[in-house]
Amino acid sequence: MIIITSKTSNSTTIIVLAAGMGSRFGGTKQLEEVTDEGDAILDFSLYDAVEAGFRKIVFVVRSEILEEARSFFESKLREKADVRFVCQDREPMAEKHSAKRQKPFGTGHALLAARSEVNESFCMINADDYYGQNAFSIINNGFRSAGEADFLMVGYPLKNTLSKFGTVSRGQCRLTGSGYLKSVIERKGILSENGVISCDEADEIAEPLTPDTIVSMNLWGFTPKIFDLLESEFRVFLKNSGEDPNAEFFVNDVVNKAVRNGKAQVKVLRTDDEWVGVTYREDKQFTAEHFRKMKEMGFYPQRLW
Q1: I need a labelling partner for 201 at 20 to 30 A (CA). Which of 3, 170, 239, 299 fits?
Q2: β-pairing, 168-175 with 214-222?
Q3: How far apart are CA 94 and CA 242, in angstroms?
Q4: Distance between CA atoms of residues 136 and 154, nearest Å
Q5: How far, in Å, CA of 302 to CA of 305, rounded?
Q6: How buried is 35 (Cβ within 10 angstroms: 0-12 exposed, 13-18 middle, 19+ buried)?
């Protein structure tokens, strides 16, 4: 996870979750280069974030890739943002359990690991997802006009978030008429064939998936209030599932419970940007071509940093 901290009072912080194992992809995909210039997907997200006014970046990583991540990002970002790194597997609440696990505890725990570095509102992203050029401006503007909302989430049409090479998991969003989040329901095995969307299981609570269903790609805007919610729920998680090597603690679950219990309101900000990512090895060529074309068309400079 990477957290970027603002250098001025008008700037914003971003936390990047980069401790995932990338099992389906087959490697440390957060640092995988996708352009001839040596850019990773995350470089494009961070470039867009800096352009949108984010000036503090906190990376949440695993201990074994800490130095590699520092080497990859620190020199690029030194003049652009306040850059910090934290290790998810060294987070005090879970450290005694981490040695028994092959994979991190999940997104909720990754975010909790960054608590000591953040006292301000912040945006959270996955390191291996490209969110589109507008997403960070949308959420930064959202901080300024949040109204009654405690938290923010950028929502994408499902059709803009699919892989051409296999199934994906997405958080299906249920919204109120005024655009606030009711719940995020994890849907697995999502596939589009001939314009028809299917998934592994049918949830009686969830509405059928359509190309325009709004989904979460884990682009959240939080205040420090989220950390108290995370800590409380993580204590329960450790008590019930701390010894299970496959159990994971997710941000979505904590947000769902907070919304359900009236402890938080989440405003959903829609974007029509297209997600790009490398879920499968075969996605890499498509992703590389996507960014090559964006550079050719002038959306990004040939060298980002």
Answers
A1: 239
A2: antiparallel
A3: 8
A4: 9
A5: 9
A6: buried
Q: Helices 41-51 and 135-144 meet at what angle, rounded to 10?
A: 40
Exposed e or buried b per residue across 198-215, where buried means at least 16 C-beta atoms within 10 angstroms of its C-beta: ebeeeeeebeebeeebbb
Q: 27-81, pLDDT tens digit by residue?
A: 566 678 899 999 999 999 999 999 999 999 999 998 888 988 898 899 899 899 9
Contact 217, 129 (CB under 8 A): yes
Contact at 8 Å (CB) between 91 and 49? no
Secondary structure letter of residue 117 according to DSSP:
G
Concatenated DSSP letters for 50-68? Answer: HHTTEEEEEEEE-GGGHHH
Pairing state between β 12-17 and 122-126:
parallel
**Domain positions in the chain:** 2-296
Contacts of 260 (CB under 8 A, 6+ apart): 183
Q: Is 191 exposed, middle or buried (0-12, 13-18, 19+ CB in 10 A)?
A: middle
**Helix H or strand E encompassing 138:** helix 135-144
Nearest residue to 42 (alpha-carbon basis) of 122, 136, 134, 128: 128
Q: What is the pLDDT of residue 25?
A: 40
Q: For 213-248, how does the pLDDT look when each residue is reduced to its tens digit (9 = 90+)?
A: 999 999 999 999 999 999 999 999 999 998 888 899
2-296 under CATH 3.40.630.30, yes or no: no
CB 192 within 8 A of CB 157: no
Token pair 């040596």: residue: 38
Do 187 and 169 meet the contact criterion of CB atoms below 8 Å apart?
A: yes
CA 82 to chain CA mean position, Å: 20
Would the pTM count as exceeding 0.70? yes
Phi-psi region of 43 (alpha: psi -120 to 50; beta: other; left: phi over 0): alpha
Residue located via tokens 């503090």: 56
30, 127 contact by CB (below 8 A):
yes
